[in-house]
Amino acid sequence: MDLSEMLLNLKILMFGGKGGVGKTTCASSSAIWAAEHGRNTLIISTDPAHSLGDSFGIALPPGEPTKNSLTPRLTDEEIEHLDLESVKVQELMEQYKEETGKFVILRGTITKGFINWLKGEKIYVRNRESRFDTPISKNINK
């Protein structure tokens, strides 16, 4: 199996790393490539720097999937930061309990691990509620 076959068979592709290593470039390029090869593709960024919108030359409203004119199969979404309102966190905790039978107990400050889980949950919910073949993420664990 070559790289292109492997990429076309992925359900989720994530890019991470330190600042300036090319996460936005790799995620954007991969999303365009997947869309041009017939995959309905969602690209999600959690970077507050708006670099994803800049790379496509468009303004992206936070939390709203936006059709991109580069290719009809590509939708991009920029999540400026994760909104941790109590109600939303509570809803996610209840959903997690319902789906897994496990409880989430928060004490004191919210840990980075829990924030990363919430970001992953955002991708899971987006993927489950839509028809995207390949949701590509950048900075998911930032």
UniProtKB/TrEMBL annotation:
InterPro entries: ArsA/GET3_ATPase-like, ATPase_ArsA/GET3, P-loop_NTPase. Residues 11-104 form the ArsA/GET3 Anion-transporting ATPase-like domain. Belongs to the arsA ATPase family. This is ArsA/GET3 Anion-transporting ATPase-like domain-containing protein. PANTHER family: ARSENICAL PUMP-DRIVING ATPASE ARSENITE-TRANSLOCATING ATPASE (PTHR10803), ATPASE GET3 (PTHR10803:SF3). GO terms for molecular function: ATP binding; ATP hydrolysis activity.
